[in-house]
Amino acid sequence: MPAIDTKAFKRSLNHSDNYYRNQGFGQKDDVAGQMRSEYESSLIQTIRANQNLLIEGDVTIHLAESFGFCWGVERAVAMAYEARQHFPNQSIWITNEIIHNPEVNQQLKAMQVQFVELVEGEKDFSAVGQGDVVILPAFGASVQEMKLLHDKGCTIVDTTCPWVSKVWNTVEKHKKKGIFLHYSRQI
Prior knowledge:
By secondary structure, the chain is an alpha/beta fold. The protein is 42% helix and 16% strand. The protein has a domain at 6-27 and 70-176: Rossmann fold (3-Layer(aba) Sandwich).
């Protein structure tokens, strides 16, 4: 497979009519309400309304101020929900778990979002067709996957967390300079 000029490809992808990264689809308020009702229990709402504190008898619960999804995860899930609303009649795929949370991924499946199958450890994109919508997860996707999906004529909804994107970009810069880090973990 010939080398891809990553920077040039990403630049052209950013200008494509079939690529969504930094904008939603106009259903932000609807999606926020749906997400609150699905992922925030009435108990959590009660604790938050009481300055993140709940006292019941001799039990005291202090809820972390940052309890819940980080903003990158919240953004990714909201974009996936909005994509389903914006493309109600199209096949929607996700290349991996949107985030590492079984409840969220199960909810997406209930919304008829299909997950790209892994076959012998490799993603099998054969079922993804031209015109299908493909969601890239919060932790990103390889440039090769993005190119394959773009070449297939898919609409790409890139939910990669901006902080994760910075890591991917830094890795790409180091790779171009010939800098490689070897990591090994001893148990």
